[in-house]
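Support reply, case 0932

Customer input (verbatim):
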Amino acid sequence: MPASLNDAVSSRFDQPPRRPAAQAAQFADEFCARENDPRYGRADEATADLSEALSVLRRSGLTVAPLAAERGGSGLGVAADQWLEALDVCRSLGRASLSLARLYEGHLNGVQLVELYGDDGLRERFAADIRDGALSAIWNTERPGHSLELVPDEGRVQLRGGKVFCSGAATATRPVICGTLVQDEGDEPGGWQMTVVPMDDTPHTLLPPEGEPMGVRGAGTRSILFEPTASIEQGSLVGAPGDYLREPILTAGAARFLAAQVGACERLVELVRQELQAAKRTDHHGQRTRAATLTRLTTRGRLWLDGFGPRCERWLDDPSQVDRLVAYTRAARTEIEELSHEVIQLASQCIGLRGLVTPHLLERLIRDLSTYLRQPALDTSVEGVARFTLDETDGLFAQELLDPDVTAPGPNRRLRGTPFADPASIAERPADWVRTLGRTAVIAPHPDDESLGAGGTIALLRDVGLPVTVLFLTDGDGSHPGSRSHPPAVLAELRREEARTACERLGVDSDAIHFLGLPDGAVPRRGADGFEEAVERLRTVLSDLPDGPPHTLLLPWRREPHGDHRAAYDLATASGGGARLVEYCVHLWKTRRDADLPRRDGSAAEVVPIRLDVSTVWDRKRAAIASHASQMDPHVISDAPAGFTMPAEWREQCERPGGLQTEILLLPPDGRAADTVPTAYFDAKYETAVDPWDFAGSPYEAAKYEATLDALPKTRFRRGLELGCSIGVLTARLAERCEALLAVDAASAAVARCRTRCEELDHVDVRTAVLPRDWPDGTFDLIIASEVLYYLSNGDLDETRAAILRSLEPGGRLVLVHWTVFVPDYPRTGDDVHDAFQETPGLRRLKSKREPFYRIDLFEKAD
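Our regenerated output:
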C-alpha cells in the first residue's frame, strides 16, 4: 500500500477534473483503506491534520471544479448537468470522512455563491485564488454580543464583530462571510450582506470552542473575532444585501450535506458488513434481517438524492417551480435525517457494545454522523413541507414526490454521455460472433444473473455446439430476509431449482451447472477472510471441466453496484488460467455512481462495449428469466417485507437494452499486436516441445484433418502447396492426394521434423519460408492454409492473398482451415481471415463448414 494518499493518487489526480464524482469516489476508497492510519482514521480529533487529504483534493481538481468552465472549473453544483455530480462528490467524501465532507461542502457552497452573485472582477480574483489552492467556506452564524457588522469606510469595509461555528477556521482562506451591512443615516436600511474575506490578510483571532464538539472534530470548527483594524476592499462584497437568502439556492444547497449524510450511512453499512463477516455471524437470522433493512434505508437515501437532478432541471426550465424544489429539499432533509438515525440504531445493534468503545471506527462514525445531522432549522423544514402541501392550489405535492415525469424508469441519468445511454449506438455483432468465445464458463453471483445479463449469449453458444458451464457463486438465500415460509435453507433449494430450469431452457447440460455455496451478500472480496479458499474452490471447478479449461470467463461488470458482483471479478482475476474475461451487465443499468462506469483515459478505453444480436434466442432468454419466479413475482414469497423483487423497468432493461433484442457485452481492449507474429514465437514453442500443439496425438486435430481432406473435391492434384506445415502430420496425408507437394513453415525446427516424417516421400519438398517474404515460385492447382494466416498483420495478409491469387491456377482450389476462438497472441481471428478471402475478387466459395472451434472454406479461382 502506498505510504500516503499523495503517493496513492499521484499518477491519477494530475489533470483538470472531467468527472469529479469518479475522482471523489477513488479518493474515498483510498481514504477508507487508511482508516487505521492515525492521520486518517482519527480524523475526528480536534488536532487532526487533514492537510494531506486537502492537498490531494486540490491536486485532483475537486477544489476548482465548482468554478465556471471559463475560469478553469466544470461548474460543479452550478450547471444543471453538474447538480447530481456535486451530490455524488459530497456523498463520496461523506463516506470517507464527515470532517472532510464538512470542509468541502462549505468550499463548494462558497464558490457557488461567488459564481452566482459576484461581479466579474470579484469572480476573476476569487477564481485565481482558488486555482492557487485557496479554500472557501460559508460562515453565517452570529456570535452572541459580537454580531458581525460591515461598515463602509472610504472605499473599504470595516469588519466589526465575529462569527461562531466556523468550520475550517484555520484552513479556509477565502470564506464567504455574512454580516449586517451598516448604512449612513438617511440611506436605505442595510441588509444581510455576503463578502469574501481574505483571512490571510485580515487581522482576526481564532477562539476555542465553548466545549468540545461530540463529532466532526477534524473540521476544526472555531469562533472568529475580527480585530478592530480589520477591513476589506469594497469590491469584496458579493452581490446585494439579501442575495444570500434568495431561493432556491439557500434551501436547495442543503442537498450537499444530505448527500454527505447518505455517504456516511453507506460507510456505516459497509463497516457492519465487514464486522459481521469477520465475526462469522452472517448466517444469523436477526443479523441478516437488520442488514437487509440497512441496505433498504441507504437505497432510499440515494433515491431521495437522485430526485434533486430532475427537479433542478425543472426549476431552470421554469422558475415558477422554485417552491416545489424548496419543498422537495425540505422533505428530503426530514426523511434522510430519520433514516440516518435508524441506520445508526441498527448498526449499533449489529455490532454490539464493542462498536461503541473508543477507538472502534463505528464509535467515531456514529459520533460524526450524529453531530452532522444537527443542522439548523429542522422544524422550519418540517413546517415548510406541511405548509406547501396544505396551501398549494392543486393539492398534488405529495403525488409529485413520485411524479412519473420525474422518477420515470427511462435512461439512467448517470449513463448520459456514455454508450449505455443509447445501446443502439454500440457496435453490433451478429449472433455467429459467439464462436470467438470458445469454451465458456459463466460466473453468476446469484441465480438469475446468468439469465438477465447473458442468457442470450449462453443460448447462442449452445446452438453452435460450444460447451458452456455455469457457476453460481451463491445460492441466493439472502434475497428474502425474515421470511417464515422460505427461511434460508428452503429459499436456497428453491433458487437452485429455478437456476437449473433456467439453464435447461438456455440449453446448458445439467452436469455443467455448479453451485459454489458462498454466502449471499458476503462473497469475499480480495483481501477478506475466506477469499483464498473461494478462489481455490473456483479454480478447482474450472480446471476439472470435462471439455477442458474455458477459453472465456463470462462474468458481471467489475464495478456493478453490488458487492457480490464486484467480488466475482476479484475471484475470476485471482483464479488464473489465462481465460479471456468478457463482462455482462445486470446492475450497471441502475448504477448511481459515475465511478462505477467504464472509464476512458484519453484514447485508451477500459473495455470495449459490443451489442450482440440475440433476436433468434430472445424468447428463450425471456423464458429463462421467468424461471426465477422468486425474484420476479412478489406473490411467490409474500411474507418478507424487505425481500427483493426485481422492478419491471429494470427487468425490461436487461431483457431489451434500449428496446433492442440484444445483450451488451464488455470486451477487454484489443491488445493484439498489429504486427505479424515473429518467427521467434514459433522457435520458442518448438524448443520446449516436439509437438507443441499436439498435432500428432489430439483427437480434435485428427477429426479436423479428416474434415479438411473430405473438403477436397478431387482425389488427385498436380501440384499442391501447404502453408504452415508444422511437424508434417497433415503433410503426409496430403501427399497421398498430390503428384507433387511443397510444404513450407517459418520455424526451422518444425521444418526439420516435417522432413523426417516425410523422408520416404520423394515427391514432397519441405522448405523454410516466412510469409509473404519467401513466397515460392511456380503455380499450383491446390493451396491449403491450415492454422497459419491469423498470425499475419494486415499488410502481410494482403500480400499473401495477392500471392495466392497469382499462384493459384484457373480452376484451382484454395482450402482455408482456421481456429475461430479469439486468441490474444494473434493479430486476428480465423473468421477475420476467412471473411477477407470471401471478399477477394477472383475467388468463388464452393463450400463452407463450421464446427464449434474451427471453420473450413473451399474456394475456386475463376477461369
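We compared this against your earlier run and they match. Two observations from our side: The first strand starts at residue 138 and ends at 139. The radius of gyration is 34 Å. Please reopen the case if you see a mismatch on your end.
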